[in-house]
Every structure is written in structure tokens, then in C-alpha cells.
Specification:
This protein is an alpha+beta fold.
Length: about 230
């Protein structure tokens, strides 16, 4: 396992452009994220069904049954992984192209431990919770045959984070890893366990910070079926 470096940089903060969603029963989607140079307020959104959806003020979550809420308040993806995908796909990916709220540089997002804490700028503290599991909207948005299987096979899911301490963030802020738990359960491991390597599921229970929904899946031996 690679260790995340102590610090990195927030290369962009991305907010939703709300669009109709022809790919899922949810009428609208916020997967189209665009960078903003303005300071953005970050706060805990509350529960998935009744809260604000996203942890970023000005963002939008369309499918509130499956996305958003405190354990999926913020989605981070590394610019290094976006560049890997650009090389792999043969086309450039703009900031926010994967629907990420935060594009980071210098942080190995997929090697982040469940429960790892990041300080961003002067105020905000986030905590790593879960990997992104690709959905039908993501598949339709990318518009590439077999995209879900392609994304899963690459093992670069990016990370969801919850908001421990609210505040303001801005493009260019420093991202510092301030705490790494003692276990070895990473974002990449959870992703593999929930998709292609179910034998890893018992190991996920070693992370006390694992979100309850994921803990229940691991205990039950359940995985996501992605066609």
C-alpha cells in the first residue's frame, strides 16, 4: 500500500450545472460539475433523504435515494488519475469531468485510509468514508460502451468524504493529511471488495470508521452488481 503524502493542493472546486437526467429515473442530475474561482462554503448536509444533499453550498444531488448525505458529502478525485484516464481514453478530461467536487494534486486519493482526515485551507476538515461506486448516470454521462466495467477494472474510484468541520474552501488551498488510522483499509480495497474481490469483504470490518451502510454490506458478504 502506498502512503498518502502529508500534503497536496486543491486544483479545482467544482459545482453542479443542473441538467435533465435521461439516464436514470431521477429527473435531474448534478453530474456536470464546473470549476469555480469563488470561495465555497462546506458544511455537513445531513441525512440523505431530508438533508441538503451535497456538502458544498451551490452544488446539487439529483438521485437522493443513492447519493449524497453526510457519508457522501464531498467527492474527491486526483488530477493524476484524471490524467491517467485522459491518456487511456485518448481525450482530455476537463475539471469536474468525473463529477468530482474536489480535484486534488499530490494526494494519493485511492490509497487514503477509511477514516483518514484532511484539512483544507484554514477551516475545513474532511474525513474519508467510501469509494465512488459508478452508477447509470455516470455511464450515460461518459457515453462509452462498457464504461462501468472499464471504470471498475481500473481501480481508481476516488473518495467520498464527510464534513467534520465546516468552513470555506477555494481553488489553490493546501490539502493536508492530518490523521491516518492504524488499520490498512484503503479506498481502493473497499472498492475492490464491493465490486470484484468479495473475499476482501471481511477485512473491511477492521476499519471502525467504515460507514454503516458499507459495514452492513461487508458483514452480509454483499457486493454491487455492475452491468
Amino acid at each position: 500500500m502506498r502512503n498518502s503524502p502529508a500534503s497536496g493542493v486543491l486544483r479545482s472546486v467544482n459545482l453542479a450545472v443542473v441538467r435533465d437526467n435521461p439516464f436514470k429515473s431521477a429527473a435531474r442530475t448534478g453530474i456536470d460539475k464546473q470549476p469555480t474561482a469563488e470561495s465555497v462554503e462546506v458544511r455537513a448536509p445531513g441525512d440523505r433523504a431530508h438533508g441538503a444533499g451535497s456538502g458544498l453550498v451551490g452544488d446539487f444531488i439529483g438521485d437522493r435515494r443513492n447519493h449524497g448525505g453526510d457519508d457522501q458529502a464531498v467527492y474527491a478525485y486526483a488530477v493524476e488519475d484524471l490524467q491517467w484516464w485522459a491518456d487511456e481514453l485518448g481525450s482530455a478530461l476537463a475539471a469536474g469531468g468525473f463529477g468530482e467536487n474536489l480535484a486534488t494534486e499530490g494526494i494519493d486519493v485511492n490509497a487514503a485510509l477509511i477514516g483518514e482526515r484532511w484539512a483544507i485551507g484554514d477551516d475545513v476538515e474532511l474525513q474519508v468514508t467510501d469509494p465512488r461506486i459508478p452508477c447509470a448516470t455516470f455511464r450515460g454521462w461518459m457515453n462509452r460502451p462498457g464504461w462501468l466495467k472499464t471504470f471498475v477494472a481500473a481501480g481508481r474510484p476516488g473518495a467520498y468524504l464527510r464534513v467534520n468541520r465546516p468552513g470555506q474552501i477555494t481553488e489553490g488551498d493546501t490539502v493536508r493529511v492530518t490523521h491516518r488510522p492504524g488499520h490498512t483499509v484503503t479506498i481502493a480495497m473497499v472498492f475492490r471488495a464491493l465490486t470484484t474481490e468479495p473475499d476482501l469483504l471481511p477485512r473491511l470490518l477492521e476499519a471502525p470508521e467504515l460507514p454503516e451502510e458499507t459495514r452492513r454490506m461487508a458483514a452480509a458478504g454483499s457486493t454491487f452488481s455492475l452491468g
